[in-house]
Recover the amino acids of this structure.
């Protein structure tokens, strides 16, 4: 499918993805719970600052604001597509998608978007209501910076999507790719800003972490919306996100073409 | 020429593993593979508008050939061209002009009504609204889909799902249909519906059809030409009638007798194929069918007579066993 034609397809596919997501309403509760995982780390840090007053310059409200934003950001940036790619390639489910004039990448992307729309419809009003009544949730940025943070969230999702898809292409050669990707994300869990804001990291580790792809999908958008980055740091963050996205997209395309030669379309 | 296949070869590399814990441990360090020649030098051509039956036992190479023609598999060697395209290059113009319907897999969105899949396909194939509505109306009428359109796909029966699957596959009005076991698991009525539909669709659209099926009735009802493949190589390519004449140069004379007759008394009419009480089946030379039928009527106490060709299943079985 030509690049120009892809946006025309998205509304119809998105409507179907939304419909599929709604069909499993019970899952919404589970997805919501996983979206709230960062709040567990928030509780840990709050217990730390309760005794020490501050940690690395973060007080209680700073941690609350950081992790509430992290919960929302994580929901919108996470891309659980590796297991789908893996299953499609191993079981031959990819065949049905390959027959159509649309790169299967878009099928996976849209399915994720459908789920995000559904959870977002519940999560965003809930967080907005919480922010209105809980004084310690504070985002000292204007609408412009908030919009930039939203763009960073979209970019983070895009990066996660191409990163997971690039890894998944190894499924043409191995059956353990999903586990490999989990391992990769084990590293990312630590360096993305989940465990602690990167500002609390030792300087050397922080300098490395900001150059890796993991921060783009969590710490970077959260740092923007909590007002912790200046224009230069924001530009650098987008440059890192863009570079990794381009790199993983390239790897995805190369492995996709080579992998298709090995595809055996089993099971049908 | 719509489909051109020259010396098509597809080999699979298959891991060999013995059962048991020890074997699985050994497999961690040293894996053994062997090559399976699923398709081994197949060549054929199909003209526009032809309906061709593709026959062969399980594992003969039918589905692998279809997958090569649909661009799902890269051939190991040889050449396949469909509508002038090399299938595995997956050019958009090619993907828009053909469909592959697989009886064992479907594209329908499981949790949504079939109509949602139709709308998604409209968008993916870029079918303009008037053309989409016309095609949909025709498919709904031919496949009797009206009551199914707003039912969740997972609540449809197998036959209903296959009818919806066919509609989803044909909304973009492909010029070439590869049908891989489209009636698999369906009851007799549903099979007949699918057969009638394929015939009508091909006639209306001038579509080329290559059909595999384990149900011989599908092939005899639709295809005048058949390809027979076995062990990855082509065993027969030609007219179904010629195949019958070549491998069954006889016909069956089914007699209902008034009283018992000794086999020796029937020998002049034909070879005894089977006897069940007063119902007797004799095998007679195809070229002398009329004369032998007349002889039976004049020399035997015949109450009723019928002349039949041997079943195509029997003939195909014969082709496969003549390796």
């Amino acid at each position: 499918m030509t690049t120009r034609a892809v946006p025309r397809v998205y509304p119809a596919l998105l409507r179907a993805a939304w419909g599929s997501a709604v069909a499993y309403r019970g899952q919404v509760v589970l997805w919501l719970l996983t979206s709230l995982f960062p709040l567990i780390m928030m509780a840990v840090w709050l217990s730390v600052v309760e005794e020490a007053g501050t940690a690395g310059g973060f007080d209680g409200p700073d941690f609350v604001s950081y992790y509430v934003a992290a919960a929302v950001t994580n929901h919108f940036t996470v891309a659980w597509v590796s297991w789908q790619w893996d299953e499609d390639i191993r079981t031959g489910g990819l065949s049905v998608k390959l027959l159509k004039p649309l790169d299967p990448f878009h099928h996976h992307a849209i399915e994720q978007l459908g789920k995000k729309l559904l959870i977002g419809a519940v999560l965003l009003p809930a967080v907005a209501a919480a922010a209105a009544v809980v004084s310690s949730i504070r985002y000292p940025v204007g609408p412009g910076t908030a919009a930039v943070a939203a763009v960073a969230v979209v970019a983070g999702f895009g990066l996660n999507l191409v990163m997971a898809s690039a890894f998944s292409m190894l499924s043409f050669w191995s059956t353990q790719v999903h586990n490999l990707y989990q391992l990769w994300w084990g590293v990312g869990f630590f360096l993305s800003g989940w465990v602690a804001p990167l500002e609390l990291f030792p300087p050397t580790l922080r300098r490395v972490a900001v150059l890796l792809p993991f921060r783009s999908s969590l710490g970077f958008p959260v740092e923007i919306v909590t007002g912790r980055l200046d224009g230069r740091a924001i530009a650098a963050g987008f440059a890192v996100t863009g570079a990794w996205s381009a790199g993983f997209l390239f790897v995805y395309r190369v492995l996709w073409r080579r992998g298709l030669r090995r595809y055996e379309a089993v099971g049908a | 020429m719509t489909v051109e296949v020259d010396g098509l070869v597809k080999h699979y590399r298959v891991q060999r593993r013995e059962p048991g814990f020890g074997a699985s441990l050994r497999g961690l360090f040293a894996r053994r593979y062997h090559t399976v020649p699923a398709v081994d030098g197949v060549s054929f051509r199909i003209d526009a508008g032809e309906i061709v039956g593709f026959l062969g036992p399980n594992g003969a190479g039918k589905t692998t050939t279809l997958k090569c023609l649909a661009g799902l598999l890269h051939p190991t060697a040889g050449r396949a061209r469909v509508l002038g395209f090399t299938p595995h290059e997956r050019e958009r113009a090619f993907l828009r002009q053909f469909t592959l319907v697989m009886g064992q897999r479907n594209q329908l969105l499981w949790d949504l009504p079939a109509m949602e899949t139709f709308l998604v396909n409209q968008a993916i194939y870029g079918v303009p609204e008037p053309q989409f509505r016309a095609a949909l109306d025709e498919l709904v009428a031919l496949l009797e889909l009206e009551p199914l359109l707003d039912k969740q796909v997972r609540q449809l029966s197998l036959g209903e799902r296959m009818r919806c699957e066919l509609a989803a596959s044909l909304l973009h009005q492909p010029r070439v249909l590869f049908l891989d076991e489209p009636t698999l698991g369906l009851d007799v009525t549903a099979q007949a519906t699918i057969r009638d539909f394929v015939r009508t669709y091909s006639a209306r659209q001038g579509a080329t059809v290559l059909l595999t099926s384990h149900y011989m009735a599908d092939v005899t009802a639709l295809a005048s030409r058949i390809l027979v493949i076995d062990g990855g190589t082509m065993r027969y390519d030609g007219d179904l009638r010629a195949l019958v004449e070549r491998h069954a140069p006889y016909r069956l004379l089914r007699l209902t007798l008034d009283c018992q007759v000794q086999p020796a008394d029937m020998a002049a009419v034909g070879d005894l194929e089977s006897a069940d009480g007063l119902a007797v089946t004799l095998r007679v030379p195809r070229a002398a069918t009329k004369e032998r039928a007349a002889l039976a009527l004049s020399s035997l106490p015949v109450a009723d007579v019928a002349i039949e060709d041997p079943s195509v299943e029997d003939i195909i079985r014969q082709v496969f066993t003549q390796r």
About this structure: Residues 6-262 of chain A form one domain. The radius of gyration of chain A is 19 Å. Residues 220 and 237 of chain A are 7 Å apart (CA to CA).
